[in-house]
Amino acid sequence: MSNSSGLFEPQSITSIALLEQLHISEAPSPPSRAPNSSNFFPFFLLPPELRSRILSILLCPNTRLTIDLSPSNHLTSTPRLNYFLVSKRFGYEAYHVFYFSHTFRIFQTHGRFLGKRTSPLLARLPIHYLKVITSLELRLGPGWSDPPKPWFVSERLGLEHCEAARTLRVFVEVDPSSPIFKGFRLNREFYTNFCGILLRQIIERLPVLETVEYDAYPSVDRDGELMSRLLEETRKGLKRIAWGKERDWDDSLADKLEKARVTRPTKRRVGNGAGNESVSDPYCLLQGTQ
Predict the structure, then answer these.
(1) Model-level pTM?
(2) Contact 142, 175 (CB under 8 A)
(3) CA 270 to chain centre
C-alpha cells in the first residue's frame, strides 16, 4: 500500500476527529429561547386608575353578586382568585379590588353550610382582607322557626376589623309575625326579637358603619313588626336608613317632612297652654347622618 494509506492511520483519524470537534465548537449557537422582555406588557407602569379598572374587569364582572358560602363558588368566585397568585404586588392590588367591589354575606344561608360546626365566611378570612371590605349583607328569613346555630355575633366574625365597611345591606325574606304564620311559629315576637338583637350587635361592632340599606320580598310589609323593629334598632344606632331596589321602597311624605323638620330645630314643645316644656326630639339624633 502506498504512503497515501497513512492518512488512515490511528494518529490521522484522531486528528480528523479533533478538527470535526473544533468545527462544531466554532459553529454559531442556536438562538436562545429565553423570553424576550419586549413580549411583556409593563402593567405596573400604568397609572393606578387604569390598573384598578383592568383588575375590575378581570375580578368583578358582576358587582351585584353577593359573596357567600355556596357550592357554586368553584364556578363563580374561586377561578378569579387565581389572579392573587400572579405575583406579590399583583396579588396585593387584586385583592384590594376584589374585596372592595363585592358585598359579603355575614351569615351563610345555604342549607349545606348551616351545620353547628360550620364557620361563617367572615370568620375564614384573614384580617387584611376584612380591612378592605366596604359592603356587608345580613339576610334574614332562613331558619325563622329555628335560627341556625352559627348565627351569633362574636369576635370570630372579625367585624371590628372591617375598617372600610360603611354599608350594611339587610334583606328580609319573610316576617313570621304576619298572621299567615300563626300555628307554625314559636310565638309572635320570637323571630322579631332574635333579628333585632342580631342587628344591634352587628351595628355596635362595625366601627365606621354609616348606612343600613333595607330590602325585602313582596310578602314583607314595611310597617310590619319585624321591619319596624329593625328600623328602630337602626335609629338607635344613629345610622342612616336607605332602601334597596327589589321593592323600590322610598320615604313616605310624612318621613320626608320629618327629616326636613329635624334638620332645623333640635327642641320641640309638648303639651298645651301654660306649662309647656321643651324636650329633646329623639329623631334629632339622626341629624347629620341623613
Answers:
(1) 0.72
(2) no
(3) 46
